[in-house]
Specification:
Layout: H1 6-10, H2 12-24, H3 28-50, H4 53-70, H5 80-96, H6 109-112, H7 133-151, H8 155-166, H9 171-178, H10 182-202
Helix pairs in contact: 2-3, 3-4, 3-5, 4-5, 5-9, 7-10, 8-10, 9-10
Length: 203
């Protein structure tokens, strides 16, 4: 298995590229690690786009199967993350075409962002928060406001906020996933931020 370099640790695309290169060369450990990382990302994103846990599970399994089957055919390992997000998004959109309306539940910010204990949380608790009921209550209230504000965004805006702000993709990578221009990504992200700010100010 290839060592995780400082650059790879700072840039997820580099880490994916190293794992793909090693897996394509027959390294079973690298393939297992690649699938584990892809599983986490694919499920988290599919819950955001698909909404329901059953659809998200189906889409995640499909993405993992494609990764396993085609790891030897990936010509640009650096673009793997973009391909994975695009695969998940397209599969979710296909499922949603057979339904009326939006998913019943969007994955909340609580479950999207990393917390200090390694789980998922919208806002990291400050040191000593567990011993300070007032601070804990304030952070919980802020999380609920963020969750509710995110739910008010149009689906395309929610997806951009997730990819850009939560997953850390570049503007170019987001454009590749959504098949839109980079200026369009910037415009939608700007509008999404304004909408979120307006929602938070009104609450």
């Amino acid at each position: 298995m290839p060592p995780v370099t400082k650059r790879a640790a700072e840039n997820p695309s580099d880490e994916y590229a190293a794992l793909i290169t090693a897996a394509a060369a027959g390294d079973a450990t690298s393939l297992e690690r690649l699938l584990m990382k892809a599983q986490e990302v694919a499920y988290r994103f599919s819950r955001t786009v698909c909404g329901g846990p059953l659809d998200a599970e189906d889409v995640m399994q499909d993405a993992l199967l494609k990764t396993y089957r085609y790891v030897n055919r990936i010509h640009d390992p650096q673009a793997f993350r973009t391909w994975l997000y695009r695969t998940v998004r397209n599969a979710c959109l296909m499922k949603r075409r057979h339904r009326v309306g939006e998913p019943q539940r969007m994955l909340s910010l609580d479950e999207l962002l990393p917390s200090v204990d390694g789980g998922r949380s919208a806002v990291a608790e400050p040191a000593g928060a567990a011993r300070n009921p007032e601070s804990l209550a304030m952070n919980h209230a802020l999380r609920r406001r963020l969750v509710n504000a995110l739910k008010t965004l149009p689906p395309d805006y929610r997806t951009i906020v997730f990819l850009r702000e939560m997953e850390g993709l570049s503007t170019r990578e987001v454009a590749g996933v959504l098949k839109i221009s980079e200026p369009n990504v910037k415009m939608r992200l700007h509008r999404a931020r304004l909408l979120l700010r307006r929602q938070l100010e009104d609450r």
